[in-house]
Amino acid sequence: MLYIALSLIFLGPAVVHGVTGWIHTTADLAVRNTNSSSYCCSRLSSRLGSLVSYPNETIYQSEQNGTNGYWTQQEESVSPACRITPTCAQDVSIAVVELARAQCQFAIRSGGHTSWAGAANIQDGVTIDLSSLNQVNVSANNTVTSVGAGARWGDVYLKLDALNLATSGGRVAQVGVGGLTTGGGNSFFAARYGFVCDNVVNHQVVLSDGRIVDANVYENPDLHRALKGGNNNFGIVTRFDLKTFEQGKLWGGFIVYPNSTFGQQIQALQDFTTASGAGVDPYAAVINAYVYSAAAGIPIIANQYTYTKAEAFPAILQNFTNIQPQYSSTLRTTNLTDLTVELGEGTPNGFRQLFATATFGNDAGLFAALYNISNTLYTPVKNASNFQISFVLQPISKAILSASALAGQNVLGLSPSDGNLVWLDLTVQWSDEKDDAAINAATEAVVDQSIAYAKTQGLYNQYIYLNYALQSQDPIASYGQRNQALLRQISRQYDPEQVFQRLVPGGFKLFR
Fold first, then answer.
1. DSSP state of 164
2. Is the dihedral of CA 223, 228, 232, 238 positive or negative?
3. What residues are paired with 20 via a beta bridge?
4. 357 with 444: CB under 8 angstroms?
5. 223: helix, coil or strand?
């Protein structure tokens, strides 16, 4: 809900759940409940003109559910009173200042690839849509690429592939740069360069008071660190300056197998993660996916492999690629753009979706038990319209954690001492809103029971990858008490009135 603060009528600062805010009078509440939406949007229109769009306008409709729309039905069903489409950091600054002064609630959208309603959109509020901040500029010495927060990873790779360059970025072309990077980010290059956030050398950030600042190891280094996993809690990042390196062709694609190969698959995953963790070959990456769709009626295994050299069938992947039988294969020598477009084809827009996640030790027996838990608990909802469940295992080896540690500080709370880990990513698709409650409940049960079982085996790690988290999960808390306290301290330092806690309900907040 939007609301207007009567700036001359307040009783002073108050602390609610650890967040400093303002106590408003009854008269203030009455005003904000009656005309706040129109007031906030008209105030923005007076400053930003045609950059503000309304529900009857083409640009608003395109950003909601058109060619530039949200990934999920849940997000596109949320209708802000107006949308702002800034073209530069100064536009974002003006918008933030006006919204903060008028105490208007707002959302921040980069690519809009978080599944749940209200993550990057807001009912009857104001959505700042960063999609026009999509520049991709490479430095003269080819070592840094400056990327607008509204760019998609496909935009980045299209530019870099032509120059035989790359950066450690997202693996799905249509995912936005901003959300993935501030949430941590996994990459095909993670075993060499760490997480995506570790490769940011500078953030350009609009703070709650409208200042546009740089955050790097020399300027505002605490803010720089906080943005490496801290989500949208400190300001609006308008540009990321990313480490860039030489990269020619690479090799990869999908192999689809029958589910009868399950036992070989989970053993191959354990062996790959162990070898990768030992530093055997840092150029390989695996996404191990067990998929059931109502349309097909049978479970399959659809693995994505990437080798970031132009070398086919490297030894470290042969425990997977030698598994027979195979239904199909798209393995080929190609470029980063092509691989990330292919991955995105498996997660099209226009459905209801959710993610959920947890982190576990590397153990084939555990993977089998977790898969059985998932199968059992999703069986009652498998008749939902267009139902599809992907039970996805992603290795986070000690090599990735070591590369992350060498790259510099983030706030994720992971360490090489955690050993070889595996992320479980549950991705569920369906079409009908009437199935929401049952599917959400089943997903929460899968996560809870999986964690409970892993604890009995001594194979649970508390880390929750923010970009795969279910809305009810608390990834910030999973970073550990010290990092959570640090993030809260940095938030109070850079956002003393807590604009990004009080007025931006989307994302994963610091105080829950």
1. T
2. positive
3. 15
4. no
5. helix
Above 90 in pLDDT, residue 8? no
Q: Are 368 and 423 in contact (CB under 8 A)?
A: no
- List the end-to-end C-alpha distance of the chain, in Å, as a whole number: 19
- Beta strand segments in 244-294, E: 245-246, 250-258, 284-293
Cβ density class 15-40: b for 16+ within 10 Å, e for less: eeeebbbbebeeebeebbeeebbebb
Evaluate whether 103 touches 6 at the Cβ level (below 8 Å): no
Residues 6+ apart with CB under 8 A from 339: 171, 188, 250, 252, 253, 306
Tokens 């083409």, residue? 58
Burial 475-490 (b: 16+ CB within 10 A, else e): bbbbbbeebbebbbeb
Q: How many helices (H) and strands (E) does the chain have?
A: 17, 22
pTM score, whole prediction: 0.93
CA angle (286 as vertex; 343, 363 as ends), nearest 5: 135
* Complete DSSP assignment for 140-191: TTSSEEEEETT-BHHHHHHHHHTTTEE-S--SSTTSBHHHHHHT----TTHH
Cα–Cα nearest to 507, from 304, 261, 235, 152: 235
- DSSP for 124-145, written as a single string: TSEEEE-TT---EEE-TTSSEE
Residue 18's pLDDT is what?
A: 32
176 DSSP 8-state letter? B
Q: Shortest CA distance to 183 belongs to which of 462, 501, 410? A: 410
Instruction: Return the number of other C-beta atoms located less than 10 Å from residue 56's C-beta.
Output: 7
Cα–Cα nearest to 262, from 448, 383, 378, 391:
391
Q: What are phi and psi of 485, to 5 degrees?
A: -65, -40
Q: Any bridge partners for residue 107, and if so which?
A: 127
Contact predicate 132/85, CB 8 Å:
yes
Given a cut of 50, whether residue 27 has pLDDT beyond it is: no
Joined tokens for residue 212: 């546009």
Nearest to 282, CA basis, from 402, 399, 362: 399
Q: In degrees, to the nearest 5, what angle opens at C-alpha 285 toward C-alphas 281 and 291?
A: 145
Examine the pLDDT at 338 and tell me if it is beyond 50: yes
Rounded CA-CA distance 374/443 in Å is: 8
- 3-class DSSP assignment, residue 12: strand
Question: What are residue 155's DSSP bridge partners?
Answer: none
Side-by-side strand order, sheet with 212-215: 136-138, 144-148, 236-243, 200-206, 212-215
Cβ atoms of 50 and 91 closer than 8 Å: no
Q: Taking residues 289-314, what's their average pLDDT?
A: 97
Q: What pLDDT digit, counting tens, does each position of 401-444 carry?
A: 999 999 989 999 999 999 999 999 999 999 999 999 999 999 99
To which residue do tokens 């640090």 refer? 486
Q: How many CA atoms lie within 13 Å of 303's alpha carbon, on the beta-carbon side?
A: 29
**C-alpha span between 226 and 374 (Å, rounded):** 34
What amino acid occupies position 469?
A
Largest interatomic CA distance in the chain: 73
